[in-house]
Design brief:
The structure is a homodimer.
Chain A (H helix, E strand, L loop, with lengths): L1 E5 L7 E5 L9 E11 L1 H5 L13 E8 L12 E5 L7 E5 L3 E3 L13 H12 L8 E4 L5 H12 L3 E6 L15 E4 L8 E6 L5 H7 L1 E9 L8 E3 L12 E4 L7 H12 L7 E6 L3 H9 L6 E5 L2
Helix pairs in contact in A: 2-3
Protein name (chains A, B): NADPH:quinone reductase
InterPro entries (chains A, B): ADH-like_C (IPR013149), ADH-like_N (IPR013154), ER (IPR020843), GroES-like_sf (IPR011032), NAD(P)-bd_dom_sf (IPR036291), Zn-ADH-like_protein (IPR051397)
GO molecular function, one term (chains A, B): oxidoreductase activity
């Protein structure tokens, strides 16, 4: 089958190639992948993977073979999946990492949801109730930013969306942001929660805005720059502030189903900012890394 | 009365001077201060305080006037106190920020406990049960480090003490450290909890050692250097890691009493590394900032 694999020593760090079909384990389904999405780190750091690694994590497709354990979706069902090796004609994935797509939904655009949706959902959930809390979303025009703005505002938070330039502010107010701000230095007052997706200078700047007891979720690093915390920046009067890392997308099935329900009910708009064939991955990656995509990159696996 | 006040534009940033006696509010006690201690930041950043600010936070003395609310220690009682303006012949402090010293204790050395004791106690308490957990203490030869080593090991943790040089490792094993390591790069394996007192390059190095779900308490910054986190250093597989700031020494009375009980029962040794008259604060500060004090600086207020 055709798949996009890591090539650490050549080109952009990846290329399409012919590889053997994956073999599904007893608690896995085999999927015929139709649509996938591209996350920032997958193209920026493709070279970090061993040569031949099958890349990609977010897929939508139809079940070709059900799990032999008898659990999970049946053959022919449309599913959304979060797992390794999504950029391929076939993907083998644990039944606990897929969710069946309800009938009547436009399946293609759902492929942008898995990584960003589960990440934003779990970060915000770990914060506790959001009603009445001031939530700052940095890099708000990106894929995970647009999801976080919607998830937080629909749970009653007062959302401040920060973008890097005025041209990237479009549409954020309609997604629920109460304020849309260009540059983090323009923000006045404290915030209770930060969903931080940029890293670099934005991370310590956002940290400085936290109220006593506040939580910063570091769930992206789109800047590609290190983050320098000034001397004593971790001391301030009042209850401890927390910076929480993100690394856990294990067993995402139930959360994928939750996200599908929100989309079906009109409570979550899927942020597709670029769509094309997976044959144009180079072009899509350049647009994504050049910050020219307002939302997520969706690829059709043809 | 005599007190040590901030002088942002002169000398080391502080000097002894004659100032009016403090006036205790209705829920405060007035203390005749006998012994005080010096915390790193109090001398390193003395210039950050407005001119005339009475410095110091940790005191032991006798109650000259009880609170008019009828609560708190009686006149003549020996107390330990955590509050602003400790480096003075008289200190007015909330009854909720003092604890009466049980009879039979050597009162002088207790003056080193308030800030470092409450800070370490509260950081470790917020982590949850410590039995069987691997706890890393950085800057372990300093005052807060020596307290943290003891509090963690006596609660069943496996404590790794990190020091900057071999000459600073003395005595840490006898305080309960299972391993004493020179330089954080020498540590193998993951740790569940970090008590981080150094900042600078040590902070991100310690962060990198955290296990999934681990917690780093940033409660000191003795290096005086900024801390640079590499790109993507907040992502790692597994449950979220947390960095927690420290800023809350509010209402420390009950925790001061807890610390006194531990000392009385032989469960906590008070880490006095330098003792002299408060007239020699300059000399003590130079030793502290030059990392020549193994533990805390204790000053006698004569």
């Amino acid at each position: 089958m055709r798949a996009i694999i890591a090539t650490p020593d050549a080109g952009p760090g990846y290329r399409p190639d012919e590889v053997p079909d994956p073999v599904a384990g007893p608690s896995q389904v085999l999927i015929a992948v139709e649509h996938v999405s591209v996350n920032h780190g997958e193209v920026r750091y493709a070279r970090a993977f061993p040569a031949g690694t099958m890349l990609g994590h977010d897929a939508v497709g139809r079940v070709l073979r059900a799990a032999t354990t008898g659990t999970g979706p049946r053959v022919g069902a449309w599913v959304i999946a979060l797992g390794a090796g999504a950029w391929a004609h076939r993907m083998a994935v644990d039944v606990g990492a897929v969710a069946e797509i309800p009938g009547g939904m436009d399946v293609a655009e759902l492929a942008v949801l898995p990584t960003v949706g589960v990440t934003a959902l779990r970060a915000l959930r770990s914060t506790g109730p959001l009603r009445g809390r001031r939530v700052l979303v940095t890099g708000a025009s990106g894929g995970v930013g647009r999801i976080a703005v919607q998830l937080a505002s629909s749970q009653g938070a007062e959302v401040i969306a920060v973008v890097g330039s005025a041209s990237r502010a479009d549409g954020l107010a309609s997604l629920g942001a109460k304020e849309v701000v260009v540059g983090i230095d323009a923000i006045a007052g404290e915030v209770d929660v930060v969903v931080e997706t940029v890293g670099g200078v934005v991370l310590p700047a956002a940290w400085r805005l936290l109220s006593p007891g506040g939580v910063l979720h570091s769930i992206g690093w789109a800047s590609g720059e290190p983050a320098t915390f000034p001397v004593n920046s971790t001391f301030a009067p009042g209850a401890a502030r927390s910076l929480r890392s993100f690394g856990d997308v294990a067993s995402p099935g139930a959360d994928l189903a939750c996200l599908l329900g929100l989309v079906r009910d009109g409570a979550l708009r899927v942020p597709v900012g670029w769509r094309g064939s997976w044959r144009h991955l180079d072009e899509a990656a350049a647009a994504l890394l050049g910050r020219r995509v307002a939302g997520k990159v969706l690829l059709d696996v043809d």
